[in-house]
Design a protein that fits this description.
Two copies of one chain form a homodimer. In chain A, strand 2 and strand 3 form a beta hairpin. The first copy, chain A, is an alpha+beta fold and 108 residues long. In chain A, helix 1 crosses helix 4 and helix 2 packs across helix 3. Chain A has four helices and three strands, in the order H-E-H-H-E-E-H. The longest helix of chain A is centred in the C-terminal third of the chain and has 25 residues. Chain A has a single domain, classed as Arc Repressor Mutant, subunit A (Orthogonal Bundle). Chain A has a three-stranded antiparallel sheet. The interface between A and B is large, with 36 and 35 residues. The first copy, chain A, binds a DNA duplex (30 and 30 nucleotides) through helix 3.
DNA sequence: GTAGGTATCTTGTGATACAAGATACCGTGT
DNA sequence: ACACGGTATCTTGTATCACAAGATACCTAC
């Protein structure tokens, strides 16, 4: 999979999954990896960015056999951001598809 | 427009336009900008990469009033690459859309 | 106490888009 | 001759982000 494609997109994917349910980092990797490869070295810096920007809050919870889990929950601001970025992605993808399908606006 | 989204995608857009007709750099900027913002500082390094990789060849042609134009033409290898990357993009976009639309494979 | 699974986090590297500006060619007006 | 504006190409420095690899730590089972 082309690494470059993911730039900026993984952040939306994380926001989108979190809009569905609270998750901890490791869980997000597994959840998103069903569709798109993502590694741990990517998810943690990304989650820290989202927290710094106020889009998520965190809380710790014990786990059965293993280190405690840090859950991430969307804030209201994060929910709004998720909505906006999803729309932005949809518009972008539509533009690219239009270009790739040679709908070049009657280019001479 | 989110700059990050474009990473890797602009290269396909260029290949795709060139599959339709030969273009010079300045023309490609205008052509692609109808749908997606792209600047000159992006297109020229990108075109040099494509040439280094053997996906395009170039030829000079005079222009009516201005510097001579360097046209870019897809090679056979470039045509093949255009096809493959387009498919890769389509698959990727479909995966992202599936994730964003919460088709989370019955996640518990 | 050591091995293995779960989980978080950090560091260094590579790819690429962009702004800003340098360079150059040409026609027109003076 | 010379300056100007439009066309066109190219370079440099900066920022962002994903990743591999590894460090850290917690817990259970042996």
């Amino acid at each position: 999979m082309n690494i470059q494609f993911k730039k900026g997109v993984l952040e939306i994917c994380v926001l989108s999954v979190l809009a569905y349910k609270d998750c901890y980092g490791y869980e997000l990797v597994n959840e998103i990896s069903k569709r798109i490869d993502i590694s741990e070295g990517t998810i943690y810096p990304l989650l820290h960015r989202l927290k710094d920007e106020g889009y998520v809050t965190t809380y710790l919870q014990e786990s059965a056999g293993g280190a405690p889990r840090k859950y991430y929950r969307l804030t209201d601001s994060g929910r709004k951001e998720e909505h906006e970025r999803k729309e932005e992605w949809m518009r972008f993808a539509a533009s690219v598809n239009a270009l790739l399908e040679r709908k070049n606006d009657a280019a001479e």
